[in-house]
Amino acid sequence: MLSGVRDLVLPSSQRRSLDELAQDLDLSSGDTRSKRSAFWTMLTLSSVIAAAGVLTDSTATVIGAMIIAPLSTPIMGIALGSVQHRRIGAIKVVLAACAVVIVVGMLFALVLPETYDLLSNSQIASRTSPGLMDLVAAVATGLAGAVALARRDVAAVLPGVAIAISLVPPLVVAGVCLGKLAGALALGALVLFVSNFFALVFGGMVVFAVLGRRAQADRGTWRLARGTYAAMGVLFVVVFVPLAANTALTLLISSWTTGAKSVAEQWLDDTPGASVSSVDMSSHTMYIHVRAPGDLPPVQTLLDRLEGRVPDGIPIVVDSAQGRRIDVGTVGD
Predict the structure, then answer these.
(1) CA 71, CA 102: separation in Å to the nearest integer?
(2) Which residues contact 2 (CB under 8 A, 6 or more apart)?
């Protein structure tokens, strides 16, 4: 059955060998000077582009940086080296590249004013709170990228893979957040990068192991070491636990804010013209935004009704805005 799946996904007529892949993914083989020059040049430029795109909240610019960024090459090199049980120095390259991108982000953070709200920027906010669905998408993308590398006829999809699995932008966001001393947000962005990193390694190891199985089995030497399986399991847990925790917390917060909004609307039922604009949580505080033409009902009534709907100990802030409707006529009258 495994052979049938392999022949379907990786047909022999289009299959590349592990040695061919090594020429593309191993920066320490062949013309190493040219490979490394191209890698570091494009990585630096993509980091600058990504930082500019993040700070201007430009999705198109960030996508351009994703396509240019060559960081997936040494990451897939780690997967290839693991399958072939040899060291190619890719881990050191990846760590150094991460440091470069984060420093670029920190430098760009220097131009931001002190009062800049990081979460008001969608490029930052979307990369600082990853969940399990981000991991699911990353694993699927990692498998797609590995298959595209292993086949000669689908290399055209690699730019799409680069866009789908974001590598440089989360590191830039982490650098920007560190530059603004927002450690929690930086950690969230790093978790997103790590999940994408491990998804690429996992996808690459699965596909490359299947790709090399027949040739190595013929020599009677193919075996995926138990240590590799153990490492994959540990890496999965390292990624899965924080993403699962964040997903659970997000669902809980959604449940609390939905319940609080329902209670607040009931609290305002007897106040003509009053309404609940929104309910959200920030810095462990729940904010209930209301709009009313006059005075609000006693807030103690609201707190009493929230018991059992919101965990004890969470501060509640009612943000009231006064306003009334004024019909001024029709233009042209």
Answers:
(1) 13
(2) 210
